[in-house]
Structures
1.
Amino acid sequence: MNRATGGTARRMKNKDEDTVANTESVIIHIPEKPPFLPHLQPTVKVHAAVIEPKDANTLVRKLNQIAPLENLRHVKRVQKKCIDGGKLQLCLLLSMAVENDGEVDAMPYEILELVKSYQLSTFITKVCKYAATSKEEWDEQCKLWPTSYHPPTYNISGITGFTEEESQSVLSFMRHAIDLSTSCVGQVVNAAVIVDPSTKQVIASASDWVISSASPANKVSKEGSCSDYPENLNSSNLENQQTSLLDSSIGEFEHVICNVGCLHPWRWAVQSLSPSSGCWHPLRHAAIVAIEHSSARDRQLFPDYKLNGEDSIKEECTLSPSKRQKITDSDFQSNDHSSESVRPYLCTGCDIYLAWEPCAMCAMALVHQRVRRIFFSFPNSNAGALGSVHRLQGERSLNHHYAVFRVVLPEEVLRNKVVDAKTDGYG
Amino acid sequence: MASYEEHTLEFMKLALEQAKDALANLEVPVGCVIVEDGEVVASGRNRTNETSNATRHAEMEAIDFLVEQWQKNGLSPLEVSERFSKCILYVTCEPCIMCAAALSYLGIKEAYYGCANDKFGGCGSILSLHTSCSELPTSGFASSKKGFKCTAGIMASEAVYLLRSFYEQGNPNAPKPHRPIKQRV
């Protein structure tokens, strides 16, 4: 076990998802879809048929009703092809081809009816599974079957890299989150720290409340106490936990992390404890609790806030927490404490640090709460919704999109490997 | 449209009442009831604006009420899980991805919903978290992935009507209203 490198190198690098150095801290952007070479994009099989151009409109309308392309919104219904003699041929995508044990299932009944009444001869072809994220990908996709392409319209700070100062701040908050996740003796839970990056202030922090034996280390930061920035975090606690984690066998380790809410969200019912111990809740994952704390803080800081939005909220605002609404990069520099203070719209502009990749419930909660960036340390191949099992940052239909980063800290590398080995075992 | 048993419609009407209560309080009008052994044991409606917490959906309100209630009665986690496995949810709009995941974690028996949620739906529209099979095989861990039966389209037009009224009046809490807020007289 080579732990000698741990805790020494602090140099930060921004790298692609596939390269992770062992001795340096790394912040890895986790894009909206798994990275693929343009010509190696995953495809799915679909049923299609050549149709008469005069029938195209009617057929497309009927199909959109009986078989909308729910998971293939980027794929066009009709493919136009020039065949010999300059003649135009139209192919129509009928439906996804569901495969079972390598055999393609029959089309749904309604589509079969359509096929029969228009006397279509169907065939199986392939389309790209995910929407293109670059012009190069799109060009490749259209060689198979036409798709639509929407270039990204946002640029969340960090996707294109972090400055040294930003990196140090990210690292520091991630340590804070991991400290929280290991603050209960003998077990590890998930932990969440919500941060306003414009002031580097912790807005709220929480660890899982799913099981009762974990004494919750939860806190709403008081207004004005900017000392929350964990500049001098004492990592001895972490080191101790680490040592005990690494010294224990894999079996024990499995036991230690089996209480991480987002890792085993279906497991809450089998916790062995006396019912009198109280203070447990199947859904109180760290991120959910932290969101609750941050909204409680907002309500406390802006008590006169009226839902109608018309009434003045000027008084009581001498405390002046930072204006978090509609933060842009340029706002970061000019964030003087103006007297004009409004209740922030949820967690707009805020970042959240999580020890483990969040599950679908937590990841969607963070969409609802309008979090700007998510940083996590350990991937969650069991139930992770930011790249492992689902990838919510790539669901284009959602009304808000955050940027997602994985932060690998050097001293976690070993433990990380144990975690990966363990969770991969279930994959 | 298939005809549903009368009690299904009755329970959905109660969920719609909850949604109307939300609308009257300037909240996104979604409401629900949870039924155990033919009896309503919890109800809830959106409270996202009131709480400044966008996760306070109708389902979460009802679930939290039940967990608190059952805990007060001294039920163990296993007993709470057994109770949830007998529960049926009636909700006016398809549960979002967050709520659908939560319902799966709790292991509820069944869900009936009104209109589909084509932006955030977690029971078929965007993700299908109610189906127990997923791309990854489930773990062999003690308590594994749970699915629940889901039926869509119960009194959907009533649910849509309420949502439409809300968005026509404008969400006063949205950061930059997509639609102008009508002055209420």
2.
Amino acid sequence: MEHNTKPVNAVEMNGIVKVFGNRPVLDQVNLEVEKGSVHAILGENGAGKSTLMNILYGLYQPDGGTIKINGQQVEMKNPSTAIATGIGMVHQHFMLVDVFTVAENIILGQETTKGGAFLDMDKAKQDVLALIEKYGLDVDPDAKIEDISVGMQQRVEILKALYRGADILILDEPTAVLTPQEIDELINIIHNLVNDGKTILIITHKLDEIKKSADKCTIIRRGQYIDTVSVKDVSQSDLADMMVGHQVNLKVAKTLMNPKHVIFEVDDLHARDVRGVEVLKGLSFKIRSGEIYGIAGIDGNGQKELLEAITNMIHVQGGTIKINGKEIQNTTTWNTITSGIASIHEDREKRGLIPDFSVEDNFVLETYMKNPFSIKGLMKQKAISDFAKKQVQEYDIRPNGCEKDLIRGLSGGNQQKVIIAREIANNPDLLIAMQPTRGLDVGAIENIHKTLLDQRDKGKAVLLISLELDEVMNVADTIGVIYDGKIVKEMPQDQATEHEIGLLMAGGSANE
Amino acid sequence: MNTFTLLIGVALMYATPMVLAALGGVISERAGVTNIGIEGMMTIGAFTGAAVGYFTNNPWLGVLAAGLAGGLTAILHALASITFKADQTVSGVAINLIGPALALFFCRLCFDGSAVTEPVNAKLPKLFGDNATGILANLNVDFMVIIAILATVIMWIVLYKTKWGLRIRAVGENPAAADTLGINVEFVRYVCVIISGILAGMGGAAVTLSIVSQFSQTSIAGQGYMALAAVIFGSWLPHGAFLACILFGLAQALVVVLGGGAVSVPSEILAMLPYVMTIIILIFFAGKSRAPKANGQPYIKGKR
């Protein structure tokens, strides 16, 4: 239905309040979304933007405030109410049944049937194909979810919402898991949807995507409504400032390095991946005290195995890894840690944390057996709690007072802060950070980059492995390009150009 | 030929209670609720079937009552594991403890303090009547066998061809996904656990109203656990569980047929066969078949 004469907002949320336990997550938040627009909800991790959208979708009940859809006040009791009002949501963690086909996932709960009971999969496929064609969402209705890419799974989620007749579509961090190419495709899909009169809400903390796709943007900070702006009137750094609440440097401010002796050395390293294929083929590099060594490269060129070899999670077939002159290859992970190497792994939930442990227990995963956390084999909970409390203060881990909470409930940025605080507390000579800012917002990214620089300035060595060239260019002092299991070229940061590194990453050579 | 048909007939007879119980396990676990308590639900069904069959002289009323009693017992399991989100294994073990205890208590109450019920006057009717001879006599199984086969077919159709089946499987794989699509996870799980209890109860009655004719404390001796093994061996498929139970039934039939003295194997060793087979099958297949992803996990809204 068009409202040409009197424009009615597709969504109006007024004075929304939500309290978890005794912790306020949303405090009097307002949101007005015009029909047929793309509206971004911007906020740091843990600012409450997902909570706000979950309330709109009926997954949480607000403790105060009202919701109007197309001018009508609605009480969102559960997702069924939301679906009936024409709201669809694509969650950040996809809600798909892995062993079902695409079509089965789409029709689940609103099945096409013969005689009211028996599934009519032919009709289902036709309906799904019609939607796929209409909006250009390329995906095979007969494919199983576990066999298709993350980008395709996201399209299935969008199809699910469209199949239920959604006019208002909420996308929760839709680009966090996508490749750059998939992101462009998604933005195209969003345009197709808006051209068809749909309203799109995007939860995000990526500023460039807001500029690329959104019309309006509402900013939320620590559960407070800050402002709603027209995207074309503001710059990315304006948005960043409003989101974080203070001036943000999108560029890292850093001094020249002051390198001294070599702390860490990898020489002619050979290793195989889980399938037994050689992926490190004679990789060598050195890091000096007071230096950040950045490894740039495309995913799958041996970055993962390099970190696993250093942390002794896999054995190497040849070469040496030395820290302060001592060889550590083919020993134990414990030996890596006690030799003065701290590491931040790529997948925090799998390798950095135990999600169902409390924050304070996660803080002592490597030191629980040491004084003062353990005395004569018995753990001292008080000492652990005190330590955790101090770290939570020092690293501004939110929400404040979260020491006893399960770490699973913290936002990604705050989980990462816990890992970094824990690793640095060991006072390592070498800090390895692999994709340390993946999925984090600008405030958290700035914070983590600062921490890496602090380590460097204390005279430590830092190894940064990142798939994001910008990050390596911004933070590292020396850049090594990894390609096919080798460092193909090494250069000081100030002599590096994105163009040259880009060529080397793809296996080309700058001389060609 | 005679021995072979006899083997098949006896195997079907022994498999039937397990088939019904295993189907109960399949539907409950497909919805994401582990049901260790099948053994206890079978015991309750076995007693109720025998007692009602004795007092009414109608074995079919006995089967009906047994299903009802099993379903009622299952409500306990559903309450604990779905509503109160208790550990499903603990709740199931509790059912296995309370099942035989309740059966014995009511048995003493109804049968003058005896731990066994009086034999029923009428057992379940046989397929080829009471006067069959030859091969027909060997294959003369009771109607519960037909019911078990029908139940297998119906459950397969429901799980794979109807919208309810799609929802049940979704709830067992990813309850959060089902929830966001407006499917009532708790309701689906309740229904499946109760059906599971009804089937297990009827399985118990199949023991006391067709294999033997009375209830004693050893009527149900591990058939429920074997049914659970059959669920795993059969990869949580109705027909898979059915075939696994037939295999266990064959093992028991071997005990009966060979135990007649044809071969000189001590009967104690033979009697171990079905149980040893269960263990061996579990060792080799338990790790390989894929359980429903959310099996055994209580669904808590909003937990990531």
